[in-house]
Write a structure and sequence with these properties.
Largest sheet: 9 strands, antiparallel
Helix content: under 10%
Number of domains: 2
Number of strands: 21
Number of helices: 2
Strand content: 35-45%
Length: 296
């Protein structure tokens, strides 16, 4: 395995996905929006500085000199839009949209400051040539406090600025979208490594192109399922099943043997019983350990 070293240039696309307060995406006809109508997207870490402890001895030499670890509280996001997409603004900030006589969305209003939540994905271009991967994928799995500014009307382009901040999202997991390659054939699929519960930003090279640019809502049809993680149990069968429901199978026999997976039943499995691992191989419980293949 080798590392991919790269430089990011040019913002190509962004996608906002509607979520609830727990960070679960909300399927439906107004569930997401995709745009490239932005001038720039800026992220800024908000750090809480750790407490410093210091004291000097009577001779002036340090007696205590220690500092607690800094903490990332949130990441602030600022997006300067050069195009107005009222439905995208509604998804990100909760503004009220306006329609014309034909039912088309043609504007928005600003009033109270509603509380809405969404996930933000951004694609940028890889500078130079990589053997694999042509885009850089950025994910902020949960943003809140979204606001869009009122622009200055003048002899120049009127830009609308969005501001918001992240909070951690324990429920994004591998997400609802096919954004990374799953194999050498570049089969598109969901994230291979889930977003962890305490992560504000997720960033990687991807071989899968950004989504198609649109104006307005894009239906989000993938039903929400919380990421369960790797299996903690396995029930005998032909084949058997891993538990809890929706959990990932261990990648291979070594992973199964190194994990804390409880066999059910705990006695030796009977002839033919087995579970199927992530590499499509089989394994069974012999009453004492996990072994390769189906039970003899």
């Amino acid at each position: 395995m080798t590392a991919a070293c790269y430089s990011s240039i040019q913002g190509l696309a962004m996608r906002a996905t509607r979520t609830n307060t727990a960070g679960q995406w909300i399927p439906g006809p107004t569930g997401s929006a995709v745009s490239k109508g932005f001038v720039q997207i800026a992220f800024e870490d908000n750090i809480e500085t750790g407490t410093e402890y210091s004291a000097k001895a009577a001779d002036g030499t340090p007696c205590v000199a220690e500092k607690a670890r800094d903490t990332l509280k949130w990441v602030a996001a600022t997006i300067d839009f050069c195009k107005v997409d009222p439905e995208l603004f509604e998804l990100m900030t909760g503004v009220r949209t306006l329609e014309n006589y034909a039912g088309d969305t043609v504007g928005f209003t600003k009033g109270s400051l509603p509380s809405v939540n969404f996930a933000l994905e951004v694609w940028s271009k890889v500078s130079g040539d990589l053997s694999k991967g042509e885009w850089i994928y950025w994910l902020l799995p949960l943003l809140t406090n979204g606001r869009v500014s009122t622009p200055t009307i003048q002899d120049d382009v009127a830009t609308f600025q969005f501001t918001g901040n992240t909070i951690v999202n324990p429920n994004w997991g591998i997400g609802p979208y096919n954004v990374v390659a799953q194999d050498e054939l570049l089969t598109a699929g969901r994230l291979l490594d889930p977003v962890l519960a305490d992560e504000h930003v997720y960033h990687r090279v991807t071989e899968i192109a950004p989504p198609t640019i649109t104006c307005g809502y894009v239906p989000q049809l993938v039903e929400w399922t919380a990421y369960v993680g790797t299996a903690t149990g396995a029930t005998a069968g032909t084949p058997g099943t891993f538990t809890p429901s929706g959990a990932d199978a261990p990648a291979n026999l070594a992973d199964l043997q190194g994990a804390n997976v409880t066999a059910s039943p705990s006695t030796a499995w009977t002839t033919g019983q087995h579970v199927v691992l992530g590499d499509s191989s089989q394994a069974y419980w012999d009453g004492d350990s996990w072994e390769s293949g189906a039970a003899p």
